[in-house]
Structures are given as C-alpha cells and as structure tokens.
Amino acid sequence: xxxxxxxxxxxxxxxxxxxxxxxxxxxxxxxxxxxxxxxxxxxxxxxxxxxxxxxxxxxxxxxxxxxxxxxxxxxxxxxxxxxxxxxxxxxxxxxxxxxxxxxxxxxxxxxxxxxxxxxxxxxxxxxxxxxxxxxxxxxxxxxxxxxxxxxxxxxxxxxxxxxxxxxxxxxxxxxxxxxxxxxxxxxxxxxxxxxxxxxxxxxxxxxxxxxxxxxxxxxxxxxxxxxxxxxxxxxxxxxxxxxxxxxxxxxxxxxxxxxxxxxxxxxxxxxxxxxxxxxxxxxxxxxxxxxxxxxxxxxxxxxxxxxxxxxxxxxxxxxxxxxxxxxxxxxxxxxxxxxxxxxxxxxxxxxxxxxxxxxxxxxxxxxxxxxxxxxxxxxxxxxxxxxxxxxxxxxxxxxxxxxxxxxxxxxxxxxxxxxxxxxxxxxxxxxxxxxxxxxxxxxxxxxxxxxxxxxxxxxxxxxxxxxxxxxxxxxxxxxxxxxxxxxxxxxxxxxxxxxxxxxxxxxxxxxxxxxxxxxxxxxxxxxxxxxxxxxxxxx
Length: 539
Hints:
By secondary structure, this protein is an alpha+beta fold. The protein has helices at residues 14-22, 46-51, 81-84, 101-104, 215-222, 290-301, 430-438, 458-473, 494-503, 522-537, and strands at residues 2-4, 62-63, 70-75, 85-93, 96-99, 112-116, 129-137, 152-156, 180-185, 201-207, 230-234, 248-252, 260-270, 281-285, 329-333, 336-340, 354-360, 364-367, 371-374, 382-391, 394-395, 405-406. The model is unreliable at 6-56 and 311-315 (pLDDT under 50).
C-alpha cells in the first residue's frame, strides 16, 4: 500500500456511520464461522512481516469465505504462504489477475506466485501456487505520483479451471460518493500493524468522494488530487491496511442485486497508522481503464500472426508534435502548488508523451503523468502556469494559462478553538478569535484572556495587520522607521506602524501623525483590511 502522511484532524461524520450501519448484501462473501484455530494470528517472524509492510490489510473486518475469485500474490522465493503474501488481486479471466501497479512495478514474473480462491493462507500448498507468465502495467503509472494509474494485469502460466470470475465496473463515473463497498485481504488487522490472521478478512466501507468531488476536498480527505482517477474510502471502525494493495473493492452491480463487481482497487493510505483518525484510504478506479484492460487481455489471448514469405511494404504515418494539453488546474499550499491537466486531444501519432509545466514568473516540473508538484515558490507572489506536451517529434504548443494564484501560507480557520477563557463558545466570533490566534495575529491581553468587549487602538490595529501580512506572505517589512512623530520608538508597534506605512496600508491621521492611542473606527478598519488585501494580491 502506497502511503501518505496525514496532517489533518477531524471526527468521522455521522452520515458515514449511518452508511456503514446500513450495510448491504455480500452474496458469496457472507461471513462464516471459521474452523478451529482460524482466529489465531499467523506465526510470522519480524523479518518476514517486514516483507509485507509496504502494502495494505483489513482493519475491523471478520474472517470470511473467499468467493473464489479473490487472489493472494505470494513471493515465489518464500515457502511459507503466510509470510509470502504481499498483495491481493481479482481473477477477471481464467488466466488473468487484476491488481495494483505498485504491487508489481519492481518485480519480474519469476518473482511471483498466485493463490486463487483460498480462504486460509495455511491451506495453500505448493501445488496451489500458480506461476506468472507475464505482467502488464498501465502506461499511466508512475512511482512519483499518487494521481498516476495504479493498475496492472498478471497473466498466469496456465488457466485456472473451475474458479468463478468477477466482472469489473464499466460505468466511468463509478464508484460515486456514498457507495457501499467491501474490502478484503490477508494483511494486518490492527491500526498499528502487529496482528496478522490466517483467514481472509472482509469489512464494509463506503466511498467518500466521486468524480464530481473537487480536488481540494479530495486532498483534504485522503490526499487525493484527481477524483476522476482515484477515490477516498473508509469506515468508522474499518479500513484497509498493509497487505491489501491491489485487492478488490467490491460493490453490488445494482442495489439489492447481491451480485458483486470490482468497483476499485486498494491503492494507498496514511503512513502513520491504518484506520487513521484524520486521513482515509485511497482507491484506484477501474472503470475509466476498462478499454485498456480488455485490449491487453485480447492481445494476450490472440493467436500469433502466421509467418509468410510474401514481401509487403507498410507505410507508417509520420509522427508530428502533439496538440496543446488542457489548461492546468492549480491546488496551492505553502510555497508550492500541485498542477493537474488533461492530455492533448491529439498525441501526434506517438502516445508516449511527457509534459513540462512552466510557471510565470518562476517554477517548473517535468513528468510523464498528468499532474506534478512545483515547490520553492515565494509566498506573496501570484503565479500562473502553462503545460506543454512532447513526443518523439518534439514539443507541441503550450496550453492556455491557468488562473493566476497567490502562493501563500494558508490556515484552515473553520471551527478553530483557542485558549481565551473570556470568549465563550457561544460568541459569534469564537472561531474568528481562534483563527487570529492560529495565524499569530494576537496573543490576547493577558494569560488566557482576550478582552473581547474592549476597543482596539490604532496602535494595536497596526500590530494586527502587520502580523497578518507577515504570516500570509512569509515576508517582513524589516525595521522600517515611521514618519509619524506621535509614535514613540519605544512603542511595541513602532515597526508595525512603519510596515503599514511602507505597504501603503495607512497614511496616518494628519501630516506626520498616526494617533496611536485613538480607537479604530469601523470605517478605518475597512480601509486597513481592504488595502492589505490589495497589497498582498497585487491588485
């Protein structure tokens, strides 16, 4: 399981509890009472367990009969199947397994065996381990990006007879938000990766994003940048964990049908722990890539062309440069942006494309995916970006520019608490005071006090505005002196008043006067804030 580092904190919402509680028919995946000893953890040494730690297992699930098409990927060099298992997959043709690209991108066919339909790893004999003949990884896969296409196919050395096949979702918009799913696997069954079970585990989860989800919300929930490629999923007490990568996320073909299909694959999750309190898991959609899956299977099953002695001449069309990609969408954060774009409508006859994103006034990145990240940007400056596609014939025309965005330090101010005991939670400005505290704009008027009913002097307002400017832009006005003769050099806000004057936020109350002890009127406050906004955004 690829891993992300969660930095967010929130409670899992009530609607998700309702979705999980409702559940749905699992057809062939109905839970069963395991044989004696099935709930005993597999005996795996620390070194052997380490071999499995790079992929996800079901947390909060229960021992479940394998419906026959869920497979375990095993390291061929490891004899004990409980230690050899490292990923999962689905049997979608008699000799083809669907799994995640990151499970097989660093191996060759001889490194892997496949166990089809087993419920207990301990029951897998050497005769049950099917060798691998070929591996096909989707060309959109990249180890450098969570938005790349995490799909691969494995061709078995011989077809599996008598095993059921599982269909895959074909509707491009599925799975949509709130769709109930089942996650299966043999990996770790607790959040901190200490417990492994012999029996296959299954648990109910639900999708939290759909194709219409904004990248910002997707990133908040599970680090998701492209809701059209991936989706977030999870449960209140259930999640994927290390050992489940590539395994199917199963959903009903229609509500109440009892017929299951592969709606997605387990792809990535939080690095700190499974079932993390502030980040959900990421699943790879399969429906947008069904054509590639079908074409790959057809290529594997088509007979080789008959060799003849007839001499033929084939005229290949010339490769030309690709057309322009779509204008990039920009998701900004502190000193960096993540760009996402659509590929060009015409690849020029060469689908092996690379992309270069260029920022104005600075910044660039190059990738084979349709997303990349640019770091090292200067906060307080607006940037726009274009993307150019290249193939073997050279670089094409650049895309239309993105909307210009301000690189800035961002703080999510919604629902923030604080330490000031004299601002009750019922106050209309409770979260606003917490926001100013988080931004470093105010430390209050005393230990744990804010004095919410007191007036603000022009001297205090200067300190507020200057601190906000420094926090958002990451820049400082230095120690600029002020021309205002009524602001003492010993004043706590002497440099702040000078900063506001230098930025053009204030011109004072008269020639060389600022009136630092006077209260700020609502009219003056409007002018301060509006001028600061124009200064920061260069409007």
